[in-house]
Amino acid sequence: MKGSLPSRGVATLLGWGGSLTGVLLFVALWEWGSLAYGSFLLPGPRDALAALARLWQAGEAAEAIWATTWRAMLGFALAGLAGTALGVLAGTSRTLGRALEPVSTVLLGIPPIAWIVLAILWFGSGSMAAVYTVMATTLPVTFAGAQMGALTLDRRLQEMADVFRLPPLMRLIDITLPHIVSYVFPALVTALGVAWKVAVMAELFATEDGIGAGLAMARVNLDTAGAMAWIVLVVVLLLAAEHGLLRPLQRRMEPWRQAGLGGL
């Protein structure tokens, strides 16, 4: 049952307060580490923000954000569509599931750096190698989530649908999809985080633009403050994509779960 408006407001403020406390604690530890080891080895938050401001004024940050974003999101979208479709099919067909599970396990076991090397050999340096690497590394994650959702469908609900002779479309919308979505969304959130990290790693080796290329240039110039600035930028983009896109979409498609969490 939903709480009153004031109680929900207090709960929201407490949630934000807890998150802000965690962020401030992390920044304090970062600053302490910078003071302890020196700004060359570990630039402090102010050094990183100053370097980020310089990158932004020079126009490098905006160009890198765009390049990394479309590569990560395109690979993530392709993996999400293909992995979810294959996972649902594998969950509903025992034969197909047994055939695809070993393939998924093998793909999960291949490290991202190996995919990057193969992608460069197959497609050459450039955006295609980065997009392919993101897709290859995130597809098994979405596949596993969708397969688990299809495998754990409540048989009693399906029997009830049979008894009441629900139309196939109503059965799909009211029973099958909500259950599968509850497994697919956590997998998508995980895959999104992997997509950003892998996109940056692939750009480090395969492209001449993007955040990964910026990190490579900072390494060549021994610019640790610049490297930290690029890392901060990646984290900000990841948080924006998760809390600005996936979490609101999840709250809209899974209202029963948010009610169970008290609206936090």
Mind explaining what this structure looks like?
The protein has 264 residues and is mostly helical. Helix content is 86%, strand content 0%. The chain contains 11 helices and no strands. The chain has helices at residues 5-37, 45-57, 60-92, 94-109, 112-123, 127-151, 155-163, 168-206, 211-220, 224-253, 255-260. Helix 3 runs antiparallel to helix 4 (94-109), helix 3 crosses helix 8 and helix 8 runs antiparallel to helix 10. The longest helix has 39 residues, at 168-206. The protein is globular, with a radius of gyration of 22 Å.
Oligomer: single chain
Distance between the termini: 14 Å
Q: Give the count of helical stretches.
A: 11
Structural class: mainly alpha
Order of helices and strands: HHHHHHHHHHH
On the 0-100 scale, what is the average pLDDT? Answer: 84
Percent in strands: under 5%
Rg: 22 Å
Uncertain stretches: none
Largest sheet: none
Helix proportion range: over 70%
Number of strands: 0
* Shape summary: globular
